[in-house]
Amino acid sequence: MPDPKPSGRALRTRKPPAARSAPASRRKSGIGLALAGGGPLGGIYEVGALLALEDSLDGLDFNDFDVYVGVSSGGFVAAALANGLSPAQMYRLFIDDGADAALRPKIFLRPAFAEFGRCLTALPGLAARATVQYLRDPFHHGVAESFATLARAIPTGFFENRAIDAFLARLFAAPGRTNDFRKLKHKLFLVATNLDTGASVTFGPNQHAHVPISRAIEASSALPGLFPPVVIDGAHYVDGALNKTLHASVALDEGVQLLLCVNPLVPFDASSATHAKALTVDKLNQGGLPLVLAQTFRAIIHSRMKTGMEKYHRQYPDADILLFEPHREDADMFFANIFSYWQRKRLCAMAFAKTRQSLLARAAELKPLLRKHGITLRLDRLQEDARTVHDSVNDARPLRPDVKTGNVRQTKRDLRHALDTLERAIAVAR
Fold this sequence. Notes:
Structural class: alpha/beta
């Protein structure tokens, strides 16, 4: 079969001649997962990529990693995994359009009435102050300058993110799950940005552990302009991607030997997409301000991530890092309507297929690297051209073809599948 075009990148750290070795105090913690942000669209891509990885790698249980790190929508997915929700369960609950789908688009589109009320309440006082300022010295203070005070009445966000907190609190309240960092079996870290200091803040078992997981996700995903800042212990927090895209160092500082990273947002190459006949125009400015801002945001965060990856080569010479991300020519990822369930399913399927292509294209590089960590690359699966995301969702294969542990792992997977089916049946009955 022809060599597929890789849809992501796999990077392995190598120790340069002058690299310092890892601190002796750094504990080896096995395997970690770091998920970047990207809004609802990013979460959809990450679920599809994780389904492909789980389907193609033997020896990995994505609910049994040592460390999970999530930023923005990546925090949503990371927290679900740490709470025992498999990628297949996330697909059924968050992406599928069946009766058991729990996450409807409207949860992201609830108007921030409290924020609107605050602004309306403040508007009369701000208008009076601006008027007085202008009348006191109309020759030195123009109308525009004086009434710039009214900018304080503009809402800091147009949609209510507390609904997301409430939804996740209910999801993590189910038996076998928890909304408490300290009660998780494995370490979970969620990163937000302190609005007043501009510093990154990590919520997890080592700091801010008293904050509910759902609240930390709400803070980490509070994209400025879309959602109001989240107040926690008197501090205001916004999206964690404002400082770093991936925050992989949080997991690497825990001493993981293998870190899987998924970054769903890359700059879009309209020229290449047009040449490949995937797009009819090659100038994004024809799409107006939303596309210009989207491309600008992607370019900035991706540039920072590349810089961070290069830094990890030097700081963590003993760690193997695998990064998966979409192709820059993927027009579907760039122009998708994130609030359409039909689009969600199609994009998740696309992420599944593209990640499989990336794994197959890099098989020669990845096989020995993964073997070091007891993981086998399933070439037989990757060479099944007709394999779809639905095959992965419905599959209950054992995690590792190990004679000693295979039966136990198979039973665990079968039990999870049965519980998943029961949960869906209950959802339908409601």
